[in-house]
Write a structure and sequence with these properties.
single chain, 230 residues, alpha/beta, Nucleotidyltransferase, domain 5, 2 domains, five-stranded mixed beta sheet, 12 strands, globular
């Protein structure tokens, strides 16, 4: 049995798998361990993606056998555009690797909508063309409200893209329309590309797109599994 971990800025997503399937999963490993899960003694290998030093240290303390993934120059037919490949966030690399492994020989647009939003472009030859890193939905909203005196909005989101008829709608719809229009622009520039959405806000953004996209909440973990595949 292997434990696969996706450590973000706030929580550690996890799943327990063997060579056939995955049997247990959750969004908060620290909470799961407090309940002394029955699968814990069965774990032999631990594979991790981490973008947060404190999370990495916690994982190493609790699972000394852990092996961490790192962005690579090339792997399984996917190549990195960075001059120094190791400077790319491993979560971006693994999300791309997960997408490429599911549909090789096809162009991809991979969007990870979490605390930050990343958008990465892959051509049909598996070459990472480049990407973007932008503030996530909540970060945009928090920054806007903190930097203005007269713009006020509740924390709960009003989902949509239509022009707002209240300040709340103007803020919420404006941010969502901005991000979704950005994704759709890249789809129009790469019409044959398969669009993938992952991260905590991936499904919400997907519902606002004019054309469907593949929503894969575990795309980073899927890439992690490919990364360590024998």
């Amino acid at each position: 049995m292997r434990l696969e971990l996706d450590a973000g800025n706030t929580r550690i997503k996890w799943r327990v798998c063997d060579h056939r399937a995955c049997y247990n999963a959750g969004s908060d490993l620290k909470q799961a361990l407090q309940e002394e899960p029955s699968w814990l003694p069965l774990v032999e290998e631990v594979f991790a993606s981490s973008v947060h030093d404190a999370q990495s240290q916690w994982i190493e303390t609790h699972f000394p056998q852990v092996q961490f993934a790192h962005a690579q120059v090339a792997q399984h037919g996917l190549s990195n555009s960075y001059e120094d490949a190791h400077k790319m966030g491993v979560d971006r690399w693994l999300a791309m690797l997960g997408a490429w492994s599911k549909a090789p020989d096809q162009a991809h647009i991979v969007v990870d909508a979490g605390t930050a939003i990343t958008l990465d472009l892959i051509d049909e030859f598996g070459r990472h063309v480049g990407g973007y890193i932008c503030p996530g939905l909540q970060m945009m909203k928090t920054s806007l409200l903190a930097s203005t005196d007269k713009v006020l909005a509740e924390s709960q989101w009003q989902v949509g893209r239509a022009p707002g008829t209240s300040t709340q709608q103007c803020v919420d719809h404006g941010i969502q329309d901005l991000l979704v229009s950005w994704i759709e622009q890249h789809r129009s520039m790469q019409p044959g590309a398969k669009v993938w959405l992952t991260g905590g806000n991936g499904e919400g953004l997907s519902s606002l797109l004019h054309e469907p996209a593949s929503v894969e909440p575990d795309l980073v973990l899927d890439g992690l599994s490919v990364y360590f595949s024998k």
